[in-house]
Amino acid sequence: MFNKIIRPRRLRISENMRALVRETTLDVKDFVYPIFVVAGENVREEIPSMPNCYHLSVDNAVELAKKISALGIPAVEIFGLPEYKDEIGSSAWDMTSPVQRAISAIKKSVPELLIVGDVCLCQYTSHGHCGRLCGSYVDNDETLKLLQKVAVSQAQAGADIVAPSDMMDGRVAAIRAALDENNFANVTIMSYAVKYASGFYGPFRDAADSAPQFGDRKQYQMDCANSREALREVELDIAEGADIIMVKPALAYLDIVSKVREKINLPVAVYNVSGEYAMVKAAAANGWIDERRIVLESLTAMKRAGADIIISYHAMDAANWL
Ligand code: PBG
Asked: Which domain holds residue 125?
């Protein structure tokens, strides 16, 4: 007799059967691990809202980079807390600042590890905005000139990839031109093309001391209600010369990741941001969730949505679990 029941469960019957038909796999080579560097020596202070993430002096950042590389993670992204802030964020391109010193020290001792520099001004400006102010407006075109200096200084220090996260218009073209003029034609641009104005950055702003001193970032970061606009941002950044396109945050924006993936032929990165990390860590610390399961499930979902690259504070744990 003809059996009318169609049985998808056949393909779930054992671990090997599930493995055979699995559509998405996480790999340690998908990850980028973010590091926060500070001035001083032998500093290692845990960031309160980001358990198991630390403010590290350059010496300790180098030690961590060795461990990251030994785990098989291909890249780190460097964020810094500068020693001084001013109106224009000039410590962002100071070659003696923690970020530039960390980039060159890590490049020297772990040359194969790819180094991503975050190109922005908010950690370096006294007002905490991502660019140069004109009254209370962030002046787009004046800011581009400063971002060019930041990108070139990071390339000079040894960054393989620069990642502009400021959301100024035209910054990818401006940075590409400045890199090329300074003989850095091979430095890659990973653009935070689709960066939403998000509450999920809260713990990072504590970690990087980068909260805006007035207002918010809605003049330049995207409105969480929009998705067509994301595709427009992506098109523009590709036209300007971006090599890798990033969507940020990750979990609440996987529909965007998926749309971008379908539209373009460049690698897509997602940033699994500080607030996403903090929520998991807090719930896990309370015994409310199984951290390992939740983390691997979330990272797999990012990959399934279409991400090729995942920037995540969970990367070292995940590398150990895979
Ligand atoms: C700098 C920058 C931010 C993040 C990465 N680069 C903060 C912001 O835009 O407020 C957020 C990263 C995170 O939350 O983990 N502009």
From this structure: 25-321
- Domain annotation covers residue 3: no
Asked if residue 15 belongs to a domain, the reply is no
179 lines ligand 1 (CB under 6 A): no
Q: Using one digit for the tens of pLDDT, what is the confidence trace for 27-76?
A: 999 999 999 999 999 999 999 999 999 999 999 999 999 999 999 999 99
Record the pTM: 0.97
Residue 307 belongs to domain with CATH number = 3.20.20.70
Q: How far apart are CA 84 and CA 241, in angstroms?
A: 32
Does the C-beta of 147 come closer than 6 Å to ligand 1?
A: no
Q: How many domains does the chain have?
A: 1
Q: How far is CA 79 from CA 76, 159, 205, 311, in A?
A: 10, 12, 11, 13
Dist. CA 173–CA 258, nearest whole Å? 25
Q: 204 CB under 6 A from ligand 1?
A: yes
43 CA to centre of ligand 1 in angstroms: 22
* Angle 106-202-151 from CA coordinates, rounded to 5°: 40
